[in-house]
Design brief:
single chain, globular, alpha+beta, 21% helix
Length: 222
């Protein structure tokens, strides 16, 4: 389109056209990146339930700290159960229960879904919608999957997050990987494995059995 416009108005007009063309390409790039994220969000949020295993990596080169572990999560509506760091966290729709076997304790707290730090499945699928600009990243072949990476950059210049890179499986439209890079270059990497959907998960899995843990002599902290 732009290459058909032949204007010879000197170097200043040439520069203006270059800037305008670059802006158009950037806008198209951002629109394409957001479209991929929207499709993944729409696909995954449409399932009646979802469970998956995942690998978690924390890499802080400045402090010479690297942690690698595996976990799993079950999601249904706004309810979830996640196992990670040797503990289990259950959200039943109103309260969060964090079960820590190592300390033989359970911490119970009310959850406000409007709070920024409150995790819900819907936020996992839609966190990108506010506060970021988008750009297309690399398309990579990983373990036989075609993964399109999208780079999200916080609009807030004071954010502790430098950028977030989201990898989308182009065949399934599932989120394959989320990489968060801090301004201190700390990387947190979550890689999904064995995603299972629409399994008609029994709602009792999201119910905390307080009597069970009282009988185990766990300390219950409300």
């Amino acid at each position: 389109m732009m290459n058909k416009i032949r204007l010879r108005l000197g170097i200043w007009m040439g520069l203006l056209l270059t800037v305008f063309a670059s802006g158009t390409v950037l806008a198209q790039n951002e629109e394409a990146a957001k479209s991929i994220l929207d499709k993944a969000s729409s696909t995954m949020s449409a399932y009646s339930d979802l469970s998956m295993d995942f690998d978690y990596v924390l890499d802080n080169k400045a402090e010479d700290v690297k942690q690698e572990m595996s976990g799993d999560v079950i999601l249904k509506g706004d309810k979830y159960v996640v196992n990670l760091f040797g503990s289990t966290q259950i959200y039943d729709g109103s309260k969060t229960y964090t079960i820590i076997p190592e300390n033989e304790e359970v911490n119970i707290s009310d959850s406000d879904l409007d709070e920024e730090n409150t995790f819900t499945p819907s936020k996992f699928y839609s966190f990108y919608k506010n506060g970021y600009t988008y750009s297309m990243g690399d398309l990579k072949q990983i373990n036989g999957k075609s993964i399109q990476f999208i780079e999200l950059t916080p609009i807030d210049t004071d954010s502790e997050i430098a950028n977030v890179i989201v990898g989308i499986d182009t065949k399934t439209n599932h989120i394959y990987q989320v990489i968060e890079i801090g301004v201190n270059e700390t990387r947190t990497i979550l890689t999904a494995k064995n995603i299972r959907t629409n399994q008609q998960i029994n709602g009792s899995v999201f119910t905390f059995d307080q009597k069970k843990y009282e009988e185990l002599n766990y300390m219950i902290n409300n």
